[in-house]
Specification:
Layout lengths: L5 H5 L2 H23 L1 H15 L10 H7 L2 H15 L1 H12 L1
Length: 99
């Protein structure tokens, strides 16, 4: 499959599949951490209670999980942004904000 994309044309055809798979793994690793906070929250609270403040409860850390629940809503905004300014620019903006 040929492309007119200037950036993709710079990558040799024999290496493109490796680049795509590596980028996919890195993206899934990065974005997947958002969904693990629900499982990590009890351990995080336990550690903070043990090391920092003995009065810490799960309720005092629920803001962290609530903040992570905003990710699906930002995906809606990203889809709208992609239609307005294009995929590459919206991916760059989203990655910059996420990072």
């Amino acid at each position: 499959m040929e492309t007119d994309d200037v950036i993709v044309k710079r990558v040799p055809k024999s290496v493109r599949i490796i680049v795509v798979v590596a980028a996919g793994v890195l993206l899934q690793f990065t974005y997947g951490t958002v969904y693990t906070f629900g499982n990590l929250l009890p351990y995080l609270v336990s550690y903070l209670r043990w090391q920092v403040d003995a009065t810490r409860t799960s309720g005092s850390m629920i803001w962290l999980q609530s903040f992570m629940n905003g990710v699906p809503f930002s995906m809606l905004f990203g889809g709208y942004l992609e239609r307005k300014i294009g995929a590459r620019k919206s991916i760059f903006i989203g990655s910059l904000i996420y990072t």
